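Provenance

Sequences were taken from public entries as deposited. Structures were produced by running a predictor on each sequence independently, with no templates supplied. The record for J domain-containing protein from Amanita thiersii Skay4041 is shown for reference.
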Amino acid sequence: MSTETPTKPAAATSKASTSTRTTDEDLEKLLNREASAFQREVEVERILKAFKLNPYDVLDIGEIASPEDIKKKYKQISLFIHPDKCPHARAPEAFDLLKKAESELSDKAKREELDAVINQARILVLKSLQLPTSTPDGDPKLKNLDLPFKARLRTQSKELLIEEELRRRKAIKMNLANEGLEAKKKDEELAAKKRKAEDDKLWEENREQRVDSWRSFANQTAKKKKKTKVAVLG
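Predicted structure for J domain-containing protein:
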């Protein structure tokens, strides 16, 4: 008597295989979503920690980037950390910082000012290393430094940008102070004119009273002169 091992129906085997494959795909999607969410939060933290006065730092892009590169990088990051997609509580703040950085780098005048400051920082760093100011970033002499050249340049740029921002704020403060003094002066002039106008009005309103008083005084004086006639002797 032969015993045959029962076999599973083909449909059941196919169904089980499909079920396993679906579970694996769901798990992979879940892991990808979690990884993506984590990366979004990491990017938000990077932007929040970036040096706010340097748009290149915020966008995490080099100074030689073209306007097209800047727009492309901004679009890529903005979509990645958009508050609607990123669960980070400060995603809106990071999004605004990113937008501000792109706006400043897209403004030709502002970018030229920023590049001038960074170029000045590069010159100072090269001088501190006793190297010609025309030394390119890829020069072998800039390699194997105790502190990397890019780190030195970033630190020096940060110092100069902070100094520039302090000067800007001081100038604004002085302008506001001068505007305040000018406004105060104008207010005092207006108040003086108003007082003069009120005095002139009061003077006109009291004109009849003054005239009546003078007439009364004149009449009384005339009467006294009549009563006190000098007696003639002889």
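Residues 28-106 form a domain with the Helix Hairpins fold (CATH 1.10.287.110).
The helical segments are 10-49, 55-59, 67-80, 91-106, 108-128, 149-205, 207-227.
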